[in-house]
């Protein structure tokens, strides 16, 4: 049976979360009221997974994640307030090694979390499959890519990721030189309210101008867009080196919205220039059909390898299609992308 430690400064929330997990067949071996207690509980009980509140007295969730990763690496699922401050703190926790997060309904401590019990149990089970040590931190990822080459005109890159993805997406985009002049579409499984802040973080960390997608947005070379949470992002048109995007809220695919497949399949249909599709770490099979579509359209396809994937689900399913050109570790993905758009073939 999966064993969990629940860390939250609210006794009420600890009880609610523990009850939900126990009803879902997950054994809660310990509860903790702050980060320090949580770290000690992880050392004592060696659980399969930890649920971690972000804002707590004494030691907060970010500090606790950092300490857990240093002393007893364990998959950590952050429970975050659905606010701008909560989003920023969540991304900091992901940087420190947390593998995924779930936004608290309503943004604060609320009984509404009971109504999201299935999602919580699913997220916890997904987190247990993650390898918290899969991706090592790098100090200057942008400096590791050889840019002494010319590139083809009007290339487009579509990147899809889920569990464990934010760190890897940041690493990849921060390593892409502006001179490559890519049009970059990022689909990261993430709720509305977090994708905008994710786009801001990518904008600060890369040479590209990055924003959250809006309906009918047009982007050109040197620009990147993050799919908006709770919306599928389609490529609606391509001309004069610019993409036109459309947002829609049709049924979730593979249980997610935005879905990687929607963006990749419409990109393969609409774009007649150089196209590269990349699938990164994550749970599930979203992206496999999209990779097939890009390959059939004559595009290049890449997948992250198992050793550096927090969860080797999405890349594995794509590889199984036989349509992936190359499987690469996270720290080589930017170079592999650039290799697909060299003007020397």
Automatic annotation (TrEMBL):
<dbReference type="GO" id="GO:0050568">
    <property type="term" value="F:protein-glutamine glutaminase activity"/>
</dbReference>
<dbReference type="GO" id="GO:0005737">
    <property type="term" value="C:cytoplasm"/>
</dbReference>
<feature type="active site">
    <location>
        <position position="162"/>
    </location>
</feature>
<comment type="similarity">
    <text>Belongs to the CheB family.</text>
</comment>
<keyword id="KW-0808">Transferase</keyword>
<dbReference type="InterPro" id="IPR001789">
    <property type="entry name" value="Sig_transdc_resp-reg_receiver"/>
</dbReference>
<dbReference type="Pfam" id="PF00072">
    <property type="entry name" value="Response_reg"/>
</dbReference>
<feature type="active site">
    <location>
        <position position="286"/>
    </location>
</feature>
<dbReference type="GO" id="GO:0008168">
    <property type="term" value="F:methyltransferase activity"/>
</dbReference>
<dbReference type="InterPro" id="IPR000673">
    <property type="entry name" value="Sig_transdc_resp-reg_Me-estase"/>
</dbReference>
<feature type="modified residue" description="4-aspartylphosphate">
    <location>
        <position position="53"/>
    </location>
</feature>
<dbReference type="GO" id="GO:0008984">
    <property type="term" value="F:protein-glutamate methylesterase activity"/>
</dbReference>
<keyword id="KW-0489">Methyltransferase</keyword>
<feature type="domain" description="Response regulatory">
    <location>
        <begin position="3"/>
        <end position="119"/>
    </location>
</feature>
<dbReference type="GO" id="GO:0032259">
    <property type="term" value="P:methylation"/>
</dbReference>
<feature type="region of interest" description="Disordered">
    <location>
        <begin position="127"/>
        <end position="151"/>
    </location>
</feature>
<dbReference type="GO" id="GO:0000160">
    <property type="term" value="P:phosphorelay signal transduction system"/>
</dbReference>
<keyword id="KW-0145">Chemotaxis</keyword>
<keyword id="KW-0963">Cytoplasm</keyword>
<dbReference type="InterPro" id="IPR035909">
    <property type="entry name" value="CheB_C"/>
</dbReference>
<dbReference type="InterPro" id="IPR011006">
    <property type="entry name" value="CheY-like_superfamily"/>
</dbReference>
<comment type="function">
    <text>Involved in chemotaxis. Part of a chemotaxis signal transduction system that modulates chemotaxis in response to various stimuli. Catalyzes the demethylation of specific methylglutamate residues introduced into the chemoreceptors (methyl-accepting chemotaxis proteins or MCP) by CheR. Also mediates the irreversible deamidation of specific glutamine residues to glutamic acid.</text>
</comment>
<keyword id="KW-0597">Phosphoprotein</keyword>
<dbReference type="GO" id="GO:0006935">
    <property type="term" value="P:chemotaxis"/>
</dbReference>
<feature type="active site">
    <location>
        <position position="189"/>
    </location>
</feature>
<feature type="domain" description="CheB-type methylesterase">
    <location>
        <begin position="150"/>
        <end position="344"/>
    </location>
</feature>
<dbReference type="Pfam" id="PF01339">
    <property type="entry name" value="CheB_methylest"/>
</dbReference>
<protein>
    <recommendedName>
        <fullName>Protein-glutamate methylesterase/protein-glutamine glutaminase</fullName>
        <ecNumber>3.1.1.61</ecNumber>
        <ecNumber>3.5.1.44</ecNumber>
    </recommendedName>
</protein>
<keyword id="KW-0378">Hydrolase</keyword>
<dbReference type="InterPro" id="IPR008248">
    <property type="entry name" value="CheB-like"/>
</dbReference>
